[in-house]
Amino acid sequence: MNVLVYSGAGTTPESVKHCLETLRLLLSPFYAVFSVESSAVLNQPWINKSSVFVVPGGADLPICRVLNGQGNDTITKFVRKGGIYLGFCSGGYYASSRCEFEVGDLNMEVSGPRELGFFPGTARGCVYKGFTYGSETGVQVPKLNINKAAFEEEVDDSVFNYYNGGGMFVNAKSFQNVEVLATYDGQIQVHDEGEETDLSKAAIVMCKVGNGKALLTEN
After folding, report:
1. 3-class state of residue 25 by DSSP
2. How far is 16 from 22, CA to CA, in rounded Å?
3. Which of 66, 70, 170, 204 is 20 to 30 A removed from 156 (C-alpha atoms)?
4. Buried b (16+ CB within 10 A) or exposed e, 55-84
5. d(CA 91, CA 71)
6. Is the pLDDT of residue 197 over 80?
7. pTM for the structure as a whole
8. CA-CA distance, 38 to 63, in Å (whole number)?
9. pLDDT beyond 60 at 60
10. Residue 28 class from Cβ within 10 Å (0-12 exposed, 13-18 middle, 19+ buried)?
């Protein structure tokens, strides 16, 4: 079976490269891991030959421009039939019902509904200040606290992750079919809403979608 890493509009070469190298290291020789452009997502019969569809980091608006409609319908069908969607950073924003990125900043703001909606709420960022497109100047290595109860095997209490422009999944604990796998440790600059404020700070979530799953991380 195949693991497809989306490499079309909206991704960065570095994010695609790291996804390909890491997934090949972890999954070879049991899975074939390779990159696909938007044309393949739209026109090739990949659903029945694939186990995982991966969207690396970058920017989600260019992905919307090429995959909205037919592309997202195909991805949704794939997941609902039992496939796995794996979204990193902008891939997490893209797979939420709403994206809110730097709201109020006239030069940076990206906000609006998204078609996939695997996470049924809002992905909101940036969690930390300093992000600049095409730059590593805003990179941080935040501590994430692990929800150990979500794992069958023993895992560490926390990890440190690369971060550059990611968000949080707002009020993630309030949704059915959503399990929070990791939360930000310490203070962040965006928040949950209502009575849930600052309770979850969800950085990584697993969402059940039909017979499949969507693993979304903002790191």
Report:
1. helix
2. 10
3. 170
4. bbbbbbbebbebbeeebbebbbebbeeebb
5. 14
6. no
7. 0.95
8. 9
9. yes
10. exposed
